[in-house]
Design the sequence.
């Protein structure tokens, strides 16, 4: 550890210095751009600059719209493209104030006799002690990454410049491409499911016929299980397959229960973030085993709610892990 009075050698981190330098000049560019877009009342409230990001807080009466942000960013990059020299001069305080006015104190009044003035043409003239590029073109590019209203009358603009802006644009493009691919895959999956469900709907008569041909025990047809009880007791048919939707379950349940008045049909399927339940009860069994009560019980297990009439009911919940528990509960209610 150096002692007081020792001479030490230091090296400037040129990469970090370059990033901060570009972000510092960018702060001035965004400040004047925001003023030109929003109005003359815009003033720098505070600012922060790092090598890879920066922010500028400005005085403005409301949150920025997407259109405001786009116009400010376009104005800022227009200044960069104009390749305006950035001039640095030193004046005594009185001379600077007489020549440029008090608007030079964007970051607050400087309590010194000599004032360092940074000028970007006649667009922005401020008292500033920070590092700056020699020409606005050296900034290369500015991208506003986020804006938010942080308090009454103050809006924060977060941004990147130079290589940071290029990386931001590249990442945004990659994210956009990935999002587009994911959306395309979702659409393809949606179309596949719709096609699959349409085919299943068309197969309702065939599936119903195959299930009703079962005379004893149990049988499974296309992920739909029929369980026959002893004579005089309720029969139970169910499915937890996500290949079927509400239209299919309503159609199949109604068909089966019309043919077998002692049958209870239960269909569980996932729809988005939820698990839906549809229950049909035949004419005879509905007097003893209410579809509404069965759905209410199942839905509670799934973390939701439901209900309906003795012959038809629907409901659901959000706990997808409890689908099998829900079916077991329905079965116990029906065969007891």
Sequence:
């Amino acid at each position: 550890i150096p002692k007081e009075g020792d001479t030490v050698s230091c090296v400037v981190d040129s990469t970090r210095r370059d990033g901060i330098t570009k972000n510092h000049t960018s702060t001035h560019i965004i400040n004047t751009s925001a003023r030109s877009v929003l109005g003359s009342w815009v003033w720098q409230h505070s600012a922060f600059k790092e090598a890879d990001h920066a922010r500028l807080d400005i005085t403005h009466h409301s949150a920025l719209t997407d259109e405001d942000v786009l116009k400010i960013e376009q104005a800022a990059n227009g200044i960069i493209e104009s390749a305006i020299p950035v001039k640095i001069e030193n004046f005594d305080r009185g001379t600077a104030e007489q020549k440029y006015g008090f608007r030079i104190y964007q970051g607050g009044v400087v309590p010194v006799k000599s004032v360092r003035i940074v000028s970007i043409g006649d667009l922005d003239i401020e008292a500033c002690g920070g590092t700056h590029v020699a020409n606005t073109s050296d900034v290369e590019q500015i991208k506003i990454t986020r804006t938010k209203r942080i308090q009454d009358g103050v809006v924060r603009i977060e941004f990147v410049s130079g290589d940071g802006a290029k990386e931001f644009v590249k990442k945004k493009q990659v994210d956009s491409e990935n999002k587009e691919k994911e959306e395309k895959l979702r659409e393809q999956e949606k179309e596949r499911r719709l096609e699959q469900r349409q085919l299943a709907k068309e197969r309702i008569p065939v599936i119903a016929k195959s299930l009703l041909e079962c005379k004893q025990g149990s049988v499974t047809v296309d992920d739909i299980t029929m369980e026959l009880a002893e004579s005089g007791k309720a029969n139970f048919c169910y499915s937890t397959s996500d290949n079927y939707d509400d239209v299919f379950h309503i159609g199949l349940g109604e068909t089966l229960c019309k043919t077998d008045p002692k049958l209870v049909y239960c269909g569980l399927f996932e729809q988005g973030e939820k698990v839906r339940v549809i229950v049909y009860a035949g004419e005879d069994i509905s007097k003893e085993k209410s579809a509404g009560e069965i759905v209410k019980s199942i839905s509670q297990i799934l973390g939701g709610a439901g209900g309906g009439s003795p012959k038809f009911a629907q409901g659901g919940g959000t706990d997808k892990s409890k689908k099998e528990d829900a079916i077991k509960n329905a079965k116990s209610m029906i065969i007891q």
About this structure: The helical segments are 14-38, 66-81, 93-100, 163-202, 204-212, 246-259, 291-301, 323-335. Residues 199-335 form a domain with the Diaminopimelate Epimerase; Chain A, domain 1 fold (CATH 3.10.310.40). The chain has a mean pLDDT of 92.
